[in-house]
Amino acid sequence: MSMLPLKIDFNKADPNVTLVSISGPDQADLLMQLTGAFNSLQLIVVAAETITTPEGRVKDLFKITDQQHQKV
């Protein structure tokens, strides 16, 4: 399954978590693929906000830590 281009930004401004922002065209199983990728990297998703616009674009924000609950 090929994925359409996504914009991924990492932000370490939060003292406790790394913020991962993902935006781009919505696609089948995108959330499953993203969380699967975090899991395969042994990252913990502490919180997530997912938005799909009426135009079919996603704007997702994940707050992640490592297995020791430290920002990455």
Outline the structure in words:
The protein is of the alpha+beta class and 72 residues long. It contains 1 helix and 4 strands; from the N terminus they run E-E-H-E-E. A 4-stranded antiparallel β-sheet has the order 1-2-4-3, covered by helices on one side.
Looking at this protein, list some descriptive labels.
15% helix; alpha+beta; 72 residues; 1 helix; four-stranded antiparallel beta sheet; Alpha-Beta Plaits; single chain; 43% strand
Number of E strands: 4
Average pLDDT number: 94
CATH hierarchy, class: Alpha Beta
Stretches with pLDDT under 50, minimum 5 residues:
none
* Elements, N to C (H/E): EEHEE
| CATH evolutionary superfamily | ACT domain
CATH architecture: 2-Layer Sandwich
Number of domains: 1
Rg over CA atoms: 12 Å
Write the layout of secondary structure elements.
Elements: E1 7-11, E2 18-25, H1 30-40, E3 44-52, E4 57-65
Antiparallel strand pairs: 1-2, 2-4, 3-4
Short summary:
The protein is α+β, with helices and mostly antiparallel strands and 72 residues long.
